[in-house]
Amino acid sequence: EPEVTQTPSHQVTQMGQEVILRCVPISNHLYFYWYRQILGQKVEFLVSFYNNEISEKSEIFDDQFSVERPDGSNFTLKIRSTKLEDSAMYFCASSPQVFSQPQHFGDGTRLSIL
Amino acid sequence: GENVEQHPSTLSVQEGDSAVIKCTYSDSASNYFPWYKQELGKRPQLIIDIRSNVGEKKDQRIAVTLNKTAKHFSLHITETQPEDSAVYFCAASIRVGTGNQFYFGTGTSLTVIP
């Protein structure tokens, strides 16, 4: 069964540095998402992406964040000038269609900001 | 925006008993409701979902019911097994423009006691 893959599995970064989290969605999927889960808390929606542009974003997804699909297969989340509170598990997900379709999650990247 | 509340936060049941987890949502525009199972340190995995034009859906030992009028939906697990132990998240999805947002509940930690 095809899977969403994310790299790296764990990223440790100094506060103030930029990080790029990478995701390879399932190949025939058209919609991509990033979520954040702070340890022990619920999953929080960050952004959805379709047709090479952001289709929806949450209040969390401020100017510090950006997403990109640089080469037709990868889907990246960039966090500029990281803060301690950015420490969390970041999940990428994809779905074949936008509406009422199950999302397939990757294994996540654990981001630790020191 | 949408607000999803989930209860209980923890639930312990004896093996073989049933478990019920309840969620409420606030925005009547929500029309897709997935349930995810998340084992410790792993990705959320979709276990069942329901669309707003359906009142009930069943898949073996798992069922979901939806009451649109009352804006609540529930997960029912029958004949629970130790491997059902995990955190369960409900979610509500609203279509916004070309994208959609998913709002997750706070999770229920289910423990099935052998």
What does this structure look like?
The complex is a heterodimer of chains A (114) and B (114). In chain A, strands 2, 4, 5, 6, 9, 10 and 11 form a 7-stranded mixed sheet that branches. In chain A, strands 1-3-8-7 form a 4-stranded antiparallel sheet, with no helix packed on it. In chain A, strand 7 and strand 8 form a beta hairpin. With 114 residues, chain A is mainly β. Chain A contains no helices and 11 strands. Chain B is 0% helix and 61% strand. Classes of the chains: A mainly beta (114), B mainly beta (114).
Measured by DSSP, the beta-strand proportion of chain A falls in over 45%
General shape of chain B: globular
Along the chain, the helix and strand elements of chain A come as EEEEEEEEEEE
Arithmetic mean of pLDDT of chain A: 91
Query: How large is the radius of gyration of chain B?
Result: 14 Å
Strand content of chain B: over 45%
Oligomer: heterodimer
Helix count of chain A, per DSSP?
0
Distance linking N and C termini of chain A = 36 Å
For the CA atoms, what is the radius of gyration of chain A? Answer: 13 Å
The low-confidence parts of chain A are: none
Helical percent range of chain B?
under 10%
Model regions low in confidence, pLDDT < 50 over at least 5 residues of chain B = none
Largest Cβ-defined interface: A-B, 27 and 27 residues
Describe the sheet with the most strands of chain A.
7 strands, mixed
Distance between the termini of chain B: 41 Å
> Number of DSSP helices of chain B?
0
Helicity range of chain A: under 10%
- Helix-strand topology string of chain B: EEEEEEEEEEE
Summarize the structure.
The complex is a heterodimer of chains A (about 110) and B (about 110). By secondary structure, chain A is mainly beta. Chain A contains no helices and eleven strands.
Features:
heterodimer; A: 114 residues; mainly beta; seven-stranded mixed sheet; four-stranded antiparallel sheet; 11 strands; 50% strand; B: 114 residues; six-stranded mixed sheet; five-stranded antiparallel sheet
